[in-house]
Amino acid sequence: MILFSPLSPIEHLLRHVLDWLHGTVGLPWAWSIVALTVLVRICLVPLTVKQIHSMQSMQRHMPEMKAIQQKYKTDKKRQQEELMKFYRENKINPASSCLPLLAQIPVFFALYFVLRQFSKHPPSGSLSWLHIVPNIAAHANAHWSGYLLLVIYAASQIASTYFMSATMDKMQRRLMMVLPVFFITFLLRFPMGLVVYWVTTNLWTVGQGLVTRQMVPRTPVVQQPKRSSRTPPKEEESEDGARETAPAPAGSAARGSQPRRVKRKKRARR
Q1: Averaged in consecutive runs of 10 residues, what is the pLDDT profile of the chain (270 residues)?
Q2: Which of 65, 193, 215, 265 is the most buried (most CB within 10 A)?
Q3: Three-state DSSP class for residue 140
Q4: pLDDT at 25
Q5: How many angstroms separate the CA atoms of 89 and 87, rounded?
Q6: What is the distance between the alpha carbons of residues 188 and 174, in angstroms, rounded to a whole number?
Q7: Computed from CA positions of residues 130, 135, 139, 141, in that sequence, does the dihedral angle turn out positive or negative?
Q8: What is the pLDDT of residue 253?
Q9: Nearest to 113 by CA among 49, 50, 234, 197
Q10: Cβ neighbours of residue 205 under 8 Å, at least 6 residues apart?
Q11: Could you tell me if 189 and 141 are in contact, meaning their C-beta atoms sit under 8 angstroms apart?
């Protein structure tokens, strides 16, 4: 028998918050879970801001990162070393996009244990939600409303992935959008209240993405212009402040010094 687990403090905290929202504030148990989700996401706002800044920085330096990948495409070890060096020099944290999700995992499992206790020892008050979900402590496959919640979960998860995976590769982004469909099979045995929590946090992420797109301007990607044979030579400043023109290639100078010969058509003799 396990008397203590690392999630026990979080589990007790969530139970006290739910009891406070239900007993003091007067919310039903299902709406208490929704309010608890909002409180958790508010606490994660600093991590979310850091995530957004990191994503913008990665978008701004994307051409340089692709150039490094192309340069060392045959040497994967050297490629990773150069990318990590590039991340350190530009203060980019590629793992910051996963921080809000990782921070929610302990809350997710702690809430699961709290709802499991609800099913064993039901608290006072109705466990129904909007006259649709009969019991938030019951399994999602116990009622048709559970399947409806799972469909909403999959749609909200795909939408939240669309907004928060802008820096991923196309294959990774498609994989992240397909995974929620497979997660449905695992969530069938989870309590409905847990699905309510996950749907609420996904809808928060979608709303956050919409607000971020409106308030935060997109960072322009700076691309270096390609030089051609007709590009004028670059001017450089000398030590005394005068501007000097870089010498043109010898071949182009030789071609420029010689006059261009024009061939004339010979007139036909009558």
Answers
A1: 66 90 90 91 83 75 86 87 86 73 83 84 80 85 88 86 65 73 82 89 85 62 49 48 49 50 55
A2: 193
A3: helix
A4: 92
A5: 6
A6: 23
A7: negative
A8: 47
A9: 197
A10: 156, 160, 163, 164
A11: yes
In angstroms, rounded to a whole number, what is the distance separating the alpha carbons of residues 224 and 226? 6
**DSSP category for residue 127:** -
Any idea what the Cα angle at residue 5 is, between residues 3 and 7, rounded to 5°?
Answer: 135
CA distance 73 to 70: 5
Residue 32 corresponds to which tokens in the numbers above? 């208490």
Q: How far is CA 37 from CA 30, 52, 157, 201, 250, in A?
A: 11, 20, 15, 6, 70
Distance of alpha carbon 175 from alpha carbon 169, whole angstroms: 10
Secondary structure of residue 223 in the 3-state scheme: coil
Q: Using alpha carbons only, what angle is made at residue 143 by residues 139 and 147, rounded to the nearest 5 degrees? A: 85
Strand partners, 251: none
